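Appendix B. Raw example, untouched.
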Amino acid sequence: MYNRRIWIAVTVVTFGNFMFMPVAQAQRQEFEAISCNVATENMVHSSSDVSFSAFDQKGITQSTHASKLFDNWTRHSVFVFKKISDEMK
């Protein structure tokens, strides 16, 4: 009798959790934007077999979509590249 009450309670709680779980309806949305970037490369070390470079990139994005979601987004990125005998890492 006690074991049956536990199973009923577990079943009710489980189905209750699934019943109230929110379900998202995803929609595909396409965006179009214009981006303007400028980058500076600093060669840190260069030799015949290995070279290191650092890039500093800045840019701004203007949205052409009606919602203007990406309007005036700015970006600042820093990259470090290592080149060993014609292989970038």
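End of appendix B.
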